[in-house]
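Risk register update: the risk of archive-format incompatibility is retired. Evidence:
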Amino acid sequence: MINGAVKQKKHSLVLISVLILSFLFSTGNGFAQSKSEKLKLKRQKLEKEIAYTNKLLKEVRKNKKNTLYELQLLQNKIAQRNELIATLKKEIANLNKQISTKRSDINVMDDNLEQLKKDYAKILLFLSKHNNNLDKLVFIFSAEDLNQAYQRLRYMNEMMNYIKRQSDTIVNYENLRKEELQNLTKQKEEKNKLLKKESEQLEKIEQNLKEKDRIKNILAKKERQLKTRIRQKQKEASKLNKEIERTIAKEIAAAKAKEKHGGSKTETITYSGNFYKEKGKLPWPVDNGFISQHFGSHPHPVLKHVTINNNGIDIATSKGSVAKAVFGGKVVGVAQISNSNNAVIVKHGNWFTVYSNLEQVYVKRGDNVNMGTPIGKIHTNIKGKTELHFEVWYGKKKQNPEYWIKRK
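Archived output:
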């Protein structure tokens, strides 16, 4: 009878141990932690981007004039805040799942702990009724032979060892439960912090939207000035485009002439192949910034029925920023587009990158550059706008630069 009871208790101990191990090394829990970490990193990245946009807005507002660039910065900040709110919502949803799982796990632990204590109490009760020296001696010496007496003595020692292990298991289980309750409390605190952040962002986005509408209404009254600025930018874009096409045509003609006279195409093929391999992995041409105007045709943010065309992308950055080469190559063109707008064209085999709106140029035609080589200082206008215009060409075909640079 006693042997059967011990075996049953040992089975219970093994079962509980398996449950503990399953709980501790649950793959689902590990996945949840990994997801939480990714969401947290994304949130921190967005918070940094919003802080950088605020820095640019501060620079622009020094002149105390409402500009189209300020509107663009505000629109970008609103988009960033929307993405941040979406990330916060995902973080909260993920935490809710973790809290729910944790509660279920703790409930299972409570049930198991209660059963362990009941089993332990039964054993103690049994031993209390038979735990005197006379009973032990009677149990041992009533054996039929010396071997049986030895086995009974050994059994009694095993019984005491088992009771000790059972006691240790209960203590460890209680400590584990305490730790899980502490983790649950931390998760609840983290959830409350995220809910507070979400509420703050919702308030701020409402303020940003009101500010955006206010600036948009002011700019709408400056239609003539805006149209004049559009014509000026179109004129500069046309001049830049002609300079790029002329430079590329010249390079293509020179390559053909070289090939005709027995020159090797190996260098061009190598450069082109290496450049193409970096698609989607090229560094940004500035250390910090964001895309303020995308590639292609877009409706004007203020003027109705007016479309803006962009042969590349515009990157808003901070005052004093420097444009850098995104890949190794050769400078094949340096041109002045306006008094404060210089452009540099770098050749990478059959590929070309263009860096425009530079107030100072650090390279000259014929220079070889590496990835990260400073090309020139980006111009900051009197209204505080610092923006690099960046283009990518394959032969005579324009490419969307966003497909080439790393995603932030």
